[in-house]
Amino acid sequence: MKFFELTSEPLDVGAIARRIVPEECGATVTLDGYVRKFTKGRETDYLVYEAYEPMALKEMEKLIDKALDKYEIAAVGIVHRLGKLDIGETSVVISVSSPHRRAAFESCEWLIKELKRTVPIWKKEVYADGEVWVEGDVSGEQ
Amino acid sequence: MKVKVLFFGATADSVGEREVRLELPDGTFADKALEEILDKCEGLRENHDVGQLHFSINQEYSNGKETICDGDELAVFTAVSGG
Fold first, then answer.
1. Distance between CA A14 and CA A50 in Å, rounded?
2. Which residues of chain A have a CB within 8 Å of the CB of B62?
């Protein structure tokens, strides 16, 4: 089971996580990624996210299919928000359900790392005195 | 043949457009198509390390070896930074 979406609406993390509660599972691990105020010591006012939407959806689905193949997990949901986001607002939710928690933790980490490397979404950091499109770290570690 | 080229984020800012139409010779390979785009769309070479730019064909990452077809949707963008 899987879902992957892009939206400009605020994300309800708990509601997204509860969309995947299969009967054979006992744990869902959910990443709530949200907007950080300080990046490398610089103070961000807000972020703007933009996506190449049809390609981003295709890449999200590929990642989920790979994770379902690679880990002992039953369900994955990924929702990424686009547009202007204020500090503390959720930008991405990744939920993974599995019969046992370890596979859910490991695959959730793998999914966010790969999403940051392959899914065509970009963030612009807007500061009091300027703005910059962030270029990703190709390792996906940051 | 005609193709559509899309830009996003930093590359859209550099070119000053989000979408352009280009005429390419029939049978152009992906790596040649990217060179054409870099030559014809001012701002890309000036503002980017072109070796770090990503290139897609019909919403799939290119390996540079594909043959471009009439009506293809190409895109040029910087390393992604979602999450």
1. 24
2. none
Q: Does B8 touch chain A (CB under 8 A)?
A: yes
Whether residue A39 lies within 8 A of chain B, CB to CB, comes out as no
Chain A contacts of B60, Cβ < 8 Å?
55, 58
Mean pLDDT, residues A64-83? 98
- The CATH class for the domain spanning B2-77 reads alpha beta
pLDDT, position A61: 98
Q: What pLDDT, on the 0 to 100 scale, is given for residue A42?
A: 87
Are A6 and A80 within 8 A, CB to CB? yes
Task: Answer whether A86 touches B (CB < 8 Å).
Answer: no
> pLDDT digit string (tens) for A19-38?
999 999 999 999 999 999 98
ipTM: 0.96
- A85 class by beta-carbon count within 10 Å (0-12 exposed, 13-18 middle, 19+ buried): buried
Nearest residue to A47 via CA among A78, A13, A7, A88: A88
A92 and B60: CB-CB below 8 Å? no
For chain B, which residues make up each domain, given as ranges? 2-77
Facing B82 at nearest CB: one of A80, A133, A135: A80
The full set of domains in chain A, from first to last, is 2-129 (3.90.1170.40)
What 3-state DSSP class applies to A29?
strand
CB contact under 8 A, A135 and B79: yes
